[in-house]
Every structure is written in C-alpha cells, then in structure tokens.
C-alpha cells in the first residue's frame, strides 16, 4: 500500500510538471507573470514551499499580487516561518502599488499591532485606501472604526456610510450593523 501511494504521488507530480512546463520556461527566463502563475499553481497543489519560491521570484520583480501572496504566506507561516514583520514588509510593497487586499492586510496589522506598532490611526489610513477601491472588508472595518471612534472621530453617519458601502456588496456583518443602525436611529432616521 505504501509503495502504491508513493507511485501515485510520483505520477501526480510528473503530470503537474508537464502541465506547468510552458509557465516554467517563461518563469525561468524571468517572466514575473509566469512566476506568479506558478506560485498560484503550486499553492493549489498544496506545495507551499514551491509556491513561496515562485511568489518570491515575482515579488522581487515588483509583481504586486505576488508581493501580497508572499505577505500572506508569512502571516500564516505557509511555506516559510511565520513572521508578522515579514508579512508587513511584503504587504507594504504591494499596498504602495495600490493593491487593496494588501492595504487591508496592513490595516489589520496596525489595528492589532502585528509586525508594527499598534495604531488605530494607522489602521484607518490603510482601511480607507482599500475601502476607496471597493474592498468590502475594509469598508466594514472603517464603519466599525467610525462607530467606535477608534482612529477617527466617532461618527454614526460615517459608520453608516461605510457599512452601506460594504452591505451593498453583500457583506453580512455590514448588513447586520446597518440594520441595527436603522433600528436604533444611529446615523440615520429610525425606521
């Protein structure tokens, strides 16, 4: 049984390598997009170390999506040793290129002091950049910040604005908070 399992795993690895051959050729020639695609394919095959290898190749060339994925790998210790500081480093590079998911990741890092000094204002700054690009989780977190007055001046109207933005995208928690705001007349007329 052990021999058959090893044989099957080897067969699957060979099939994967054959499917990825065109990407590998381009990636080996320095094509950042191909390197990123290889990272995704390795991640899909649950080969975190292989994914990190290719994400790093693309990230070092400034590929924002790869930088985000590498930050995610560091945040959760997937294919690399877990490091909040490493996550922040790569998220920041992607965020500086306008990557909304990385901006949200930095917002979370600042909110909870993971890899950076805790700062509600820092969290709001990054949430706002992601929220302005339509990132629903960032919009929800910005709504919470306004409702609680953390990092911004407390504003029920501000909370409702951001909850509505996220709720319109189907964000369940934002929909609930928006419902509560209407029920209690906070930032809106009670209905």
Question: Summed up, what is this model?
Answer:
This protein has 191 residues and is mainly α. 73% of the residues lie in helices and 0% in strands. The chain starts with a helix and ends in a 7-residue tail after the last helix.
Number of strands: 0
Measured distance between first and last alpha carbons? 66 Å
What helical percentage do the residues reach? over 70%
SSE pattern, N- to C-terminal: HHHHHHHHHH
Number of helices: 10
Based on Cα principal axes, name the global outline.
elongated
Mean pLDDT: 94
Beta-strand content estimate? under 5%
Radius of gyration: 21 Å
Extract low-pLDDT stretches.
Answer: none
Structural class: mainly alpha
Q: What summary fits the major beta sheet?
A: none
């Amino acid at each position: 049984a052990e021999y058959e399992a090893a044989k099957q795993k080897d067969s699957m690895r060979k099939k994967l390598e054959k499917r990825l051959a065109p990407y590998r050729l381009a990636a080996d020639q320095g094509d950042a997009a191909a390197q990123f695609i290889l990272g995704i394919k390795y991640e899909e095959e649950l080969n975190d170390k292989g994914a990190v290898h290719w994400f790093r190749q693309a990230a070092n060339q400034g590929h924002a999506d790869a930088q985000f994925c590498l930050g995610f790998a560091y945040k959760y210790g997937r294919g690399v040793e877990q490091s909040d500081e490493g996550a922040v480093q790569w998220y920041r590079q992607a965020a500086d290129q306008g990557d909304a998911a990385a901006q949200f990741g930095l917002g979370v890092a600042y909110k909870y002091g993971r890899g950076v000094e805790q700062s509600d204002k820092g969290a709001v700054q990054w949430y706002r950049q992601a929220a302005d690009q339509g990132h629903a989780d960032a919009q929800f977190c910005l709504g919470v910040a306004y409702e609680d007055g953390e990092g911004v001046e407390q504003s029920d109207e501000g909370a409702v604005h951001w909850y509505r933005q996220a709720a319109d995208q189907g964000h369940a928690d934002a929909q609930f908070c928006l419902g509560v705001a209407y029920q209690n007349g906070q930032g809106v007329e009670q209905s």
